[in-house]
Write a structure and sequence with these properties.
This protein has 373 residues and is α/β, with parallel strands linked by helices. The chain is built from 13 helices and 13 strands. It binds 2-succinylbenzoate and magnesium ion.
Length: 373
């Protein structure tokens, strides 16, 4: 039985923007990022405060959502839509149903509500979602590098650190050669996969087929649309995983039915929240499709939630949930540290199980607004 959260009466909602520099720049098909401008949502209720993180990036380059857009739709559309209602994590989806899209903004609100409700019931998000473990196997995603020798050094460092698998970002001009070199240098045991972030077109299918020679665990979202992935999947033996295309349970079902993928990357923000993420998980488990949890450079807030999700039994592949220091020299929560067996511990405290450090949050805050609903 999945426990139901206690209801809390929402008093007001805080929208807080923080600015965090990355520990190191990250180069992908989406460009080079060296910081995150994060929208945090704090829900203040009669029973306490809950926190949610909006994973929308600084610019609309991953999907159409971006942090200022999410902030604006939250302030001008989502919060007014809730006025006068007794809002809970469970009825939020129905209340916001008329509003199309903006899933990352909706997800942040749902996360803060789940956190505060579960916190006051003394139940962890992991338990509520149906966690089967208290440790989650994790991998690391490595960006495009200056040269192959440097990449191999970085891969080796991360293997030594204990990560269970390596994901390489690929773009046209940085794909077959670095993958071949890493495979040659690190051996067949290394669990290796690639992520194209939609950077390829149908005309590059034949070139990408060369990746089939390297025993990759999967090729993640090289193309933009389902039809191209479906025809690519018929020509290669490497499993195809979709990320950007999976916006909902229905999208995931369609992708699987069309044969566009055989593995699903679940990101709670991209699909509108943890409740929808769990529905995708349940659908995939029923179809015996393996899933893993993708990352969006989350702070400790989003990272805690993702660990709870990735503890569900269908998450049989290592997730993109690296330790905090891989992203930020100083996070806003206690840092998550990699265990020697390549796992991260799932927070067991009530709600998401972590709270932001008030002094650190104050230090990185660029704006705060509070709304009554
Ligand atoms: O495609 O998985 C992706 C980060 C931002 C946007 C898209 C992606 C990513 C990553 C980073 O790959 C994974 C992580 O957070 O460790
Ligand atoms: Mg991806």
């Amino acid at each position: 039985m999945r426990p139901a959260p206690v209801q809390s009466i929402v008093m007001d909602i805080e929208l807080r923007r923080i600015h965090l520099p990355f520990a190191a720049p990250f180069h992908t098909a989406l460009g080079v990022q060296d910081n995150r401008d994060v929208l945090l949502v704090a829900v203040h209720t009669d029973t306490g405060t809950g926190w949610g993180e909006c994973v929308a990036m600084n610019e609309p380059i991953y999907t159409s959502e971006y942090v200022s857009g999410a902030h604006s739709v939250m302030r001008d559309v989502l919060l007014p839509q809730l006025t006068g209602s007794a809002v809970t994590a469970t009825n939020l989806g129905r209340l916001l149903e008329p509003i199309q899209g903006h899933r990352m903004a909706k997800a942040a609100l749902e996360m803060a509500l789940l956190d505060v409700e579960l916190r006051s019931s003394g139940v962890s998000l992991a338990t509520f979602l149906g966690a089967a473990t208290d440790r989650v196997a994790v991998g690391v995603a490595l960006g495009v590098d200056r040269d192959v020798a440097r990449l191999i050094d970085t891969v080796r460092r991360n293997i030594d650190r204990g990560y269970r698998r390596i994901k390489l970002k690929i773009v046209p001009g940085w794909d077959v050669e670095p993958v071949a070199a890493v495979r040659r240098a690190c051996g067949d045991e290394l669990v290796l996969q690639v992520d194209g972030n939609k950077a390829y077109g149908p005309s590059e299918m034949a070139r990408l087929s060369a990746l089939d020679a390297f025993g990759l665990a999967m090729i993640e979202q090289p193309f933009g649309d389902l039809a191209t992935h479906a025809s690519f999947a018929r020509t290669v033996k490497t499993p195809i995983c979709l990320d950007e295309s999976i916006s909902s349970t229905e999208a995931a079902r369609l992708a699987l039915t069309l044969g566009a993928c055989s593995i699903v990357n679940i990101k709670p923000g991209r699909v509108g929240g943890y409740l929808e993420a769990r529905r995708i998980h349940d659908m995939c488990v029923a179809r015996e499709v393996p899933v893993w949890c993708g990352g969006m450079f989350e702070t400790g807030i989003g990272r805690a939630g993702n660990l709870a999700l990735a503890a569900l039994p269908g998450f049989t592949l290592p997730s993109d949930i690296s330790e905090s220091s891989r992203y930020y020299d100083e996070d806003i929560t206690e840092p998550f540290v990699l265990e020697s067996d390549g796992t991260l511990q799932v927070p067991s405290g009530p709600g998401i199980g972590v709270v932001p450090d008030p002094d650190r949050v104050a230090e990185v805050t660029t704006s705060v607004e509070r709304f009554s609903i």
